[in-house]
Amino acid sequence: MANESRPCPCDIGDRFDYGGRGQEVQVGHIEAYVCKPSASTDKAVIVIHDIFEWQLPNTRYIADMLTTNGYIAICPDFFVGQEAWKPSNDWASFNDWVKTRDAGKIDKEVDVVLKYLKDQCGAKKIGVIGFCWGGAAVQHLMLKNPHLKTGVSLYGVISRFEDKHSLLHPTFFIFGEKDNIIPLEQVTLLEQKLKQNCKVDYEVKIYPGQTHGFVHRKREDINPQDKPYIEEGRKDMINWLNKYL
Q1: CB neighbour class for 209 (10 Å; exposed up to 12, middle 13-18, buried from 19)
Q2: For residues 1 and 3, what is the distance between their CA atoms, to the nearest angstrom?
Q3: Active site residues
Q4: What is the DSSP letter of 15?
Q5: Between the CA of residue 156 and those of 102, 176, 184, what are the distances in Å?
């Protein structure tokens, strides 16, 4: 984690001014944002939000990007109505806050979302992506959920699942070189453990000069030096999904 004065694994970064092209729906006991492509498809991606929750415009922007690439995209409220973290909150309380929102305890919600995607959307091939808190959740799901085909973990907090590496499905891990929340030593150790224990395809990629949240929290129009890496991260994410879904 970060230093004690700021123990948060996400920087708010640039909050997009973006409304979304999908709609909010009720899926069992949770709300969700859903966006569907114009052409019918049996491929879907679950998008797992970071600590700033499912309504963050940045996350919906990425969900819509998936849709423009031919996927049904759904971003459920994995906090199930609990409040999201606010940048104005006292950072000293963060560790207590996050304990009540465990990225390893979302299985009930995922089962409900999978049923919705299959029954209501006709999805047969389903993957998952997630950012920070959601990236850790992706790793959790790749370790245990047999119904998902593949996952992309974007700057997932490794320390949440640092002793578990026997992935069930192909998984792509995206990290920033200058991420002060996830030091490169942790990433190197993850690679070593995956090499020793993982029987499925995986990739760990570090993007030069990038900080935490760069794929969805930086904007190419106001971070020109980061533009190539933002675009590369998004393209790599799509290419991985295309390969395994």
Answers
A1: exposed
A2: 7
A3: 132, 179, 212
A4: P
A5: 13, 11, 13
User: For residues 109-133, b (16+ Cβ closer than 10 Å) or e, as one string?
Assistant: bbebbbebbeeebebebbbbbbbbb
Residue 32 belongs to what H/E stretch? strand 30-35
- How does pLDDT run across 29-86, given as a tens digit for each residue? 999 999 999 999 999 999 999 999 999 999 999 999 999 999 999 999 999 999 999 9
Chain segment 108-151, per-residue pLDDT in tens: 999 999 999 999 999 999 999 999 999 999 999 999 999 999 99
Answer whether 33's CB lies under 8 Å from 54's CB.
Answer: yes
Topology annotation, domain 23-244:
Rossmann fold (3.40.50)
Closest CA to 227 of 236, 215, 241, 237: 215
Listing DSSP states for 46-103 in one string gives EEE--TT-TT-HHHHHHHHHHHHTT-EEEEE-TTTTPPPP-TTS-GGGHHHHHHTS-T
Quick check: 46 and 110 in contact, CB under 8 A? yes
- State residue 54 phi and psi, 5-degree precision: -75, -15
For the chain, the structural domain boundaries read 23-244
What are the Cα distances from residue 96, in Å, to 35, 158, 212? 33, 19, 21
Report helix, strand or coil for 27.
strand
Instruction: Count CB neighbours of 180 within 10 A.
Output: 12
d(CA 120, CA 221): 37
Are the CB atoms for 85 and 52 separated by under 8 Å? Answer: yes
Check: CB of residue 142 under 8 Å from CB of residue 173. no
Amino acid at 43: K
Q: What are the beta bridge partners of residue 207?
A: 176
